Amino acid sequence: MNSTSPSFGKSVFELLSSMRFAISLLSILAVASIIGTVLKQAEPYNNYIIQFGPFWFEAYEKLGLYDVYHAAWFLVILTFLVVSTTVCIYRNAPNFAREMKSFREHVSEQSLNAFKHKHEVVTSQTPEVLAASVQHYLEGQGYKVKNLPREEGVLLAAKAGSWNRLGYFLAHSAIVMICIGGLIDGNLVFKVQQLLGYKKIETRDIPQSQVPAISRLSPSNPSFRGSVQIPEGSSADVVFLNVADGYLVQDLPFTVALKQFRIEHYTTGQPKNFESDLEIFDRSGKKIRDATIAVNHPLIQDGIAIYQASFADGGTRLSLRGWNLFAPTASPFPIDGTVHQNAALTSEAGDYTLEFTDFRPFNIENMGGDAAESGSTMSVLGGSPISDKKHLRNVGPSFQYKLRDSRGQAHEFSNYMLPLELDGRWYMMSGVRDAPNEAFRYMRMPLDADGNIETFMRLRGALLNPAWRHEIAANFAHQALPQNASDPQIEGKLTNSAAQVLALFAKGGFQTLGQFIETNVPAAEREKAAGTYLRILELAAYEALRIANRQAHLPEPKPDDATGWLVRDTLNSVSDMFVYGAPIYLQLMHYDEVKASGLQLTRSPGKNVVYLGSFLLTLGVFFMLFVRERRVWLRIKPGHALLAMSSAKHTIDFEKEFTQHAQALDTLAK
Amino acid sequence: MELALHQPAPLLKRLSWFDWLFAVIIASSGLFALSRFGEFMDPYEKGILLAAIPALAVFGWFWKSFRPLFIIVGAVSLFAISQYHGNLARMDEAFFLKYLISSQAAIMWMCALFGLATLTYWIGLLARSEFTMKTATAMTWSAVALGFIGLMVRWYESYLIGTDVGHIPVSNLYEVFVLFCLITAMLYLYYEARYQTRQMGAFVLLVISAAVGFILWYALDRGAHEIQPLVPALKSWWMKLHVPANFIGYGSFSISAMLGAAYLLAQRGILASRLPKLEVIDDIMYKSIAIGFAFFTIATILGAMWAAEAWGGYWSWDPKETWALIVWLNYAAWLHIRLVKGLRGPMLAWWALGGLLVTTFAFLGVNMFLSGLHSYGTL
Question: Looking at beta carbons, which residues of chain B come within 8 Å of A174?
Fold first, then answer.
C-alpha cells in the first residue's frame, strides 16, 4: 500500500491510500471513541449543566460531546475511514487480482539467482523426469504448479495460498460495507432534514397528539430506534426518539396494545423473566396478531422489531389514609391517588400538590445479613458456591410521591405498606429526601401490640395537645413523688417543669429541648439536666398515653417493657417529624396495580448489510492471517537444478518450509 | 525416500486408533446428552451441541494433547457428579467433593497449581533446569484439568440449586476469570509444544497468576464465587458462543503482551541467554495476536448479533461495545504495521505490551469505572 506508483500521481490519492494515513485514522477513531465512554451520553441536558457549569456546558455542546457518535466530526472520521479503505482497495485491486492468477512465469534465471532463499543441486536425472517428480511433490504440498518448457530444460512455477490476497479484498470491502450499513441505520436522514429546516426537535412536555408535524416522522421512515411505555390495557401507535435535549414522534404503521405485563422471579427474589402479551392492530383497527415478547425474544412486525426493554408502573390506583401529623388529634382521613397523577391537598400548614410518582409491588432489601459471614476464608476454600441469601427479604410494596408546597418546593417520600422489623421491634417506615441523588432518610413509627400505628398516633396527638398538657404534667408529678411524702409545693414545681418540657418538645422535639438546655443551663450541668429532662419526658409521655387511652375509651396501657419501648420510639419519631418535611403521613391501605411495559421498536434496514459485511470480514481476516502466500520456482537444466522461494512474510514457518523443500529436492534429484 | 519428502497423507489416513476412539467418545457423549436433555434445549442449543461434536473431534486431531485432557476432565467431572447423588449437601460430606473436586475445591486447586507452576517456571528458567520446567508444564496441565473440572461441576451444581437457576458457568466476572486462566494456559501449552521451548512459561504464567490473584481476592473479599441466577438479558444461547470466543481473544492478547515483555528484556540482554531467540519470541507474539484478533473479531460480531436480539440494536455505542472496538482497532493497527510495513522489533513489542492495558480496561475497567448495558460483573 505504501509503494509509490508514478501512474497515480495525485498527492491526495497518495495520502488517502497511504498506510500512515490508515493507521492514523484507526488511532484517531479509537481515541475519539473513548470520549463517549468517559462522558455519559444522551443524559438530560440539565445534568450536564450541573456537572460542567454553563460555560463548559455550551462549549461541550458545540463539540457534540453529548452524542459523540452522531456528531458531525465523528461522522467525518468514519467517512475518511471508508474513503481511505475504498481508495486502498481501488489502488491494490488490479495488482492483487493479477498476482492471484499469475505464476510469475517470466522470471529470469538471474533474478532467481538473486533470491535470498535459493538452493542449487546437481542431478543425474533428465529435466523432464525431475520436473515431473518435483511437480508431484509440490502438488502434494498444496501448490499449484505450471510446467513450462525453457531453453535447455524446464521451469516449474508454483504458488500456494493465493487466498491470502482474496482475504485482503474481503476484509477491506467488509469494513466499507459495515460502515455503510451502520450509516443507513444512523440518523443521517434526519440530520439532513434538520439542517434544511424540514424537521425540528420537540422539547415541550405535551401530549404526543399535539406534537406538530414538523417533529413527527412518517411510518415510511426507513430506519429508526424509539421507545414507548404502554400501560396494561392501553395501546400506542407512536414511539419516541430521544434526540439531543428533546424528542421526535415516530408514527407507526400499526398499533401495539399491551394486554398484560409479567415479571417472573427466582426463589431468591431476583427477576427471572420479563414478558409482555401484545396485540397488534393495523391502522384501521383490524387485529393482525397476538404475540408474547420477552427479553431476548423480540417480535418482528412489518420489518419493525419490537423488544421488551423495560417496565414501569402504569398508573396503579392507591387507597391511602392521611395522618395530619401536627394536629393534636388521632383520626386519619381517606385519600385516593393514582401513580403518575397529582392530587391537591389543603391543610392548615398551606396548600400542597401530591405527585404520585411510582409504586413497587416488591422490595428486596438486605435485612442486616452479615456480609463477612459468606466471605470467610473457609467458606470459600472449603467449597460452597451456594449463596446464602437469608438476609435478603421481600419487604412488600412501597409507593413514592412528591409533596410540593405552594412555592414549588418539593420533598420526595417513599413509604412502605407493610411494617419492617428493626432491632426486634416493628415499625412503619417512611423515607424522605430532598434531591433525587440523595438516599432516603427514614422516619420509623412504632407499632402497638395489635400491629397498628394507632397507639403511636394517639400518643403523638396527646403530646402535641396543649389543652392536655397541664393534666399530663400533674399526673406525672403525682406519680413521680412517693405517695407518703406528698408536698404540694414540690409537686407544683414538678408539674410546671414537666409542662415546660412537654411544651418545648411539642414545639420542636429534642432539638428545641437541647437548645433550651444550652441557653439556660451552665455547661457543667448540661449532661445531667439532659438526662433529667429525658426521664421527665418519658414518664410524662407514659401519663399522656394513659390519658389518651382513657379519652378514647380504651384499656389502661400495660406498664411493661413493650409500652416503654413504644413510648421511647414515639418520642424519637415525633422529634423526627419536625424535620420530616411534610405535615402529613400517607399510609397505604389498598392498591390496584397497573403495570406498564417499556417497548423498544426499531427498523434497521442496514442490519443485513452489516451482517454480510461481518461475515466477509471474518472470512477475510482468517484468509489474511492464516493463509500464507508462497511461490516456488525450479529451473532445471541438464545436470543442474535451481530452487527459489519467495513470500510476502518471512516467518519462521517460511524458513522451515524452504528447508523442507530444499531437502526434498536433494532427495528427488539423486 | 517417501518419508523424507513429508508427503502429507490425506487427513483421515493420518489418524490413529486413539483419534478415532476420541471422536467416538465425543460423538457418543454428545448424542447421549442430546437424547437425555434434548427436551430442555431450544433448537439453537441443540445446534451448538451437535456442532461441538465435530469441532471438538477435529480440534483433538489437530492438537493431540487435547484428547487426554478432554477425556480426563470428562471422566473426573462425571465421577464428581456421581458423588453428589443429586444432593448439594454432599459437597461437605463426600471426601472427594469436599477436598478435591467440588467446583470450588477444584478451582482453588487450580489457583494453587497455577501459582506453583509460575514459581517453578521461574526457578527452571533461572537455574536453566529442563527438568524443573517440565515439572512446571505438568503443573500447568494439572491446573488446566482441575479448572475445567471445576467449571463442569459448577455447571452441574447450578442445576442442583434449581433447575431454573442452572446455566453454563461463563456468566459473571468470577467465572470468566477462571475461563480466562484456562484458555490462556491452553494457548500457551500449545505454543510450548509447537516451538519446543518452555522458557516463555515464566512470563506467560505471570499474567495467569495475576488473574488467579484477582479470583482469590474476588472470592474471599466479595463472595463472588457464589452461583447467582441469570438476569433475563443473559438467558440466551448466544452466551455459549460469545463469551468463550471473547476469551480466546483476551487470552491471546495477554500472551502476546507477556512475550512482548520477554522480547524487550531479552533485547536488552536481560535473561537473553535463558530465553528463546528473539525471532522465536517475535513469531509467537505475532501468531498469538493473529489468533486473538481473529477470535476477537468473531466474538465482537457475535456480541453485536446478540445485542440486536437483546437490546434492540446491533451497535449502541455502549461502553463495552466501544471499548471492544478500541481493542479491535488497536490490534488492527498492530497487524497493519507488522504485515504491510513488515516492521518488527521493539516497537511492536512495546505496542503488544501496551495492548494489555487497553485489553484489561475493556475487560475489567469498563465494569469498574463505566456504566452501561453490559454490566454483568461489578467489583
Answer: none
Q: Rounded to two decimals, what is the model's pTM?
A: 0.87
Instruction: Classify residue B320: in a domain, yes or no.
Output: yes
Q: Please give the tally of structural domains in chain B.
A: 1
| Residue B306 counted as domain residue | yes
- pLDDT confidence of residue A192: 86
Contact B317 A41 (CB under 8 A): yes
Q: Kindly determine whether residue A38 and residue B370, on different chains, have CB atoms separated by under 8 Å.
A: yes
Interchain contact, A296 vs B293, CB within 8 Å: no
Q: What is the pLDDT of residue A633?
A: 95
Q: Are A384 and B92 in contact (CB under 8 A)?
A: yes
Beta strands (DSSP E) in A7-166 are: 117-122, 144-150, 153-160
**Average confidence score pLDDT of chain B:** 92
Q: Quick: pLDDT tens for A59-68.
A: 888 888 888 8
CB A385 within 8 A of CB B157: yes
- Please judge whether B366 and A37 are an interchain contact, meaning their C-beta atoms are less than 8 angstroms apart: yes
Distance from CA of A215 to the nearest CA of B (A): 23
Domain A102-161+631-670 has CATH 3.30.310: yes
C-alpha cell at B88: 448439594
- Domain range summary for chain A, segments of one domain joined by +: 1-101, 102-161+631-670, 188-222+224-313+596-603, 455-587
- End-to-end Cα separation, chain B, in angstroms: 63
- Determine, yes or no, domain membership for B327: yes
CB contact under 8 A, B104 and A602: no
Q: Which three cell numbers stand for residue A462?
A: 396527646
Cβ distance A272 to B232 less than 8 Å, yes or no, reads: yes
Nearest-neighbour CA in chain B from A436: distance (Å): 18
- A664: nearest CB among B4, B92, B319: B4
Phi and psi for A557 in degrees, rounded to 5?
-65, 145
Kindly report the nearest CA distance between residue A479 and chain B, in angstroms.
56
**Is residue A362 within 8 Å of A311, Cβ to Cβ?**
no
For residue A497, the cross-strand partners are none
Look at residue B4 and tell me whether its pLDDT is greater than 50. Answer: no
Nearest CA in chain B to A31: B326
Calpha distance B219→B223 (Å, rounded):
5
Interface with chain B: mutation pick from A296, A610, A658, A667, highest number of B CBs within 10 Å: A296
C-beta of residue B206 within 8 angstroms of C-beta of residue B257? no
* β-bridge mates for residue A120, sequence order: A642
Say if the Cβ atoms of A374 and B223 lie within 8 Å.
Answer: yes
Question: Cβ neighbours of residue A407 under 8 Å, at least 6 residues apart?
Answer: none
Give the one of B220, B229, B319 whose C-beta lies nearest to A380's C-beta: B220
pLDDT at A193: 87
Task: Give residue B316's domain range.
Answer: 231-379
Residues of B in contact with A660 (CB under 8 A): 6
Q: Distance of CA A125 to CAs A128, A156, A645, A666, Å?
A: 8, 15, 22, 12
Residue of B nearest to A599 (CA): B312
- The yes-or-no verdict on residue B58 having pLDDT over 70 is yes
Question: What residues contact residue A433 under an 8 Å CB cut-off, 6+ apart?
Answer: A411, A412, A439, A440, A441
Which pLDDT tens digit goes with each residue over A526-565? 889 899 999 999 999 999 999 999 988 999 998 888 999 9
pLDDT at A172: 94
Confidence at residue B1, expressed as pLDDT on a 0 to 100 scale: 38
Task: Report pLDDT for A484.
Answer: 67
Cell 434526519 found at: A190
Partner residue opposite B229 with nearest CB, options A37, A268, A663: A268
With contact defined as beta carbons under 8 Å apart, do A245 and A268 qualify?
no
Report the C-alpha gap between A552 and A548 in whole angstroms: 6
* B81 has a pLDDT exceeding 80: yes
Distance from CA of B108 to the nearest CA of A (A): 7
Which of the two residues, A489 and B308, has the higher pLDDT score? B308
Query: Could you tell me if residue B256 is inside a domain?
Result: yes
